[in-house]
């Protein structure tokens, strides 16, 4: 079309009509008078739009997939973090439950023996302090702990305090070769001295060379003068082997300790000794022997077999 005066007037007229139709369509809303025309245009141009959309959709889908992939990755990362936190919480709960069981067991021992104890937790092992069997605990002088106090847990004798700092202490374990404690046999009251042998059973020298002792007998601490370093009645262990008597002044037995020295966590330091010797009351109850089942066999004679009296009459 040429750029003439008539063409310019026609362009201005078309623009004016377009603005008028837009205004009428907006004001008409859903009842717009041009709605029929819009539907007709959609019918004409719809297939073309769908064709263009199908050509463009793969690109749009790819972008959407990348965006959704990022969102899924973020959700996965969050889920992994939540799972890790849940596992950590469960692990912490399991550990706390284990400590509660240890504490409950230790308080029961303290109650039976009438020991006044101060609870502690193991925070270090002896590797940092040499090659001796020792552990560090999280209480010290500020908590009333002093050197040569008895240390126990829910199973029995753990050791004695050797070094005290303001807030920590060192405990020499009962299985250390430098450790010695006076013992008393349950029932017979035979006295002896137990010495540590590392990861092997305790070696006990009984003062009576003719003492009658057997495998399975149990020992407790005899106690020290003024209850330091040992209070009486703390379970020590069970006799696992008895050396034959050689007619000497002493007799040697080997004792498996109640305490697992490689699994220490919650401990108790005895800060107040019992007023009376608890004797054997702190020892765990002996397991009841399992009864041996007896089988009775009853023989039932067959229906056609003669009884003894009938057989004799027939003869």
The span between the termini is 149 Å
% residues in beta strands: 15-25%
Query: How would a textbook summarize the main sheet?
Result: 6 strands, antiparallel, barrel
Rg over CA atoms: 45 Å
* Helical content band: 25-40%
Order of helices and strands: HHEEEEEEEEEEEEH
Q: What's the average pLDDT?
A: 78
Number of strands: 12
Main-sheet strand order equals 1-2-5-4-3-12
Helix count from the secondary structure assignment: 3
Low-confidence region ranges? 41-70, 311-315
Q: Looking at the structure, what is the overall shape?
A: elongated
Structural class: alpha+beta
Word description of this protein:
The protein is α+β, with helices and mostly antiparallel strands and 315 residues long. 35% of the residues lie in helices and 24% in strands. It has 3 helices and 12 strands; from the N terminus they run H-H-E-E-E-E-E-E-E-E-E-E-E-E-H. Strands 1-2-5-4-3-12 form a 6-stranded antiparallel β-barrel. Strands 6-7-8-11-10-9 form a 6-stranded antiparallel β-barrel. A hairpin with an 8-residue loop joins strand 1 (116-125) and strand 2 (134-137). It is elongated, with a radius of gyration of 45 Å.
In short:
The protein contains 3 helices and 12 strands. By secondary structure, it is of the alpha+beta class.
């Amino acid at each position: 079309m040429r750029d003439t005066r008539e063409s310019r007037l026609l362009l201005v007229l078309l623009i004016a009509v377009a603005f008028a139709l837009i205004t009428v369509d907006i004001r008409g809303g859903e009842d717009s008078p041009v709605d029929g025309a819009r539907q007709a245009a959609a019918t004409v141009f719809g297939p073309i739009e769908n064709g263009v959309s199908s050509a463009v959709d793969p690109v749009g889908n790819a972008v959407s997939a990348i965006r959704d992939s990022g969102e899924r990755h973020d959700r996965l990362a969050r889920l992994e973090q939540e799972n890790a936190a849940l596992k950590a919480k469960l692990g912490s709960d399991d550990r706390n439950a284990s400590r509660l069981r240890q504490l409950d067991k230790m308080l029961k021992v303290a109650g039976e023996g009438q020991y006044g104890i101060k609870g502690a937790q193991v925070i270090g092992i002896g590797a940092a302090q040499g090659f001796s069997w020792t552990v560090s605990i999280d209480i010290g002088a500020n908590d009333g702990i002093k050197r040569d106090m008895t240390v126990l847990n829910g199973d029995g004798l753990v050791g004695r305090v050797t070094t005290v700092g303001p807030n920590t202490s060192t405990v020499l374990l009962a299985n250390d070769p430098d450790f010695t404690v006076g013992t008393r046999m349950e029932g017979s009251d035979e006295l002896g001295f137990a010495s540590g042998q590392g990861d092997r059973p305790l070696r006990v020298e009984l003062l009576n060379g003719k003492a009658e002792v057997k495998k399975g007998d149990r020992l407790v601490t005899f106690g020290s003068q003024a209850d330091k370093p040992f209070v009486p009645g703390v379970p020590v262990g069970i006799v696992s082997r008895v050396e034959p008597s050689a007619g000497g002044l002493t007799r040697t037995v080997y004792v498996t300790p109640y305490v697992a020295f490689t699994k220490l966590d919650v401990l108790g330091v005895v800060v107040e000794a019992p007023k009376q010797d608890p004797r054997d009351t702190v020892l765990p109850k002996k397991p009841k022997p399992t009864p041996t089942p007896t089988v009775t066999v009853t023989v039932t004679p067959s229906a056609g077999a003669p009884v003894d009296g009938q057989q004799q009459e027939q003869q």
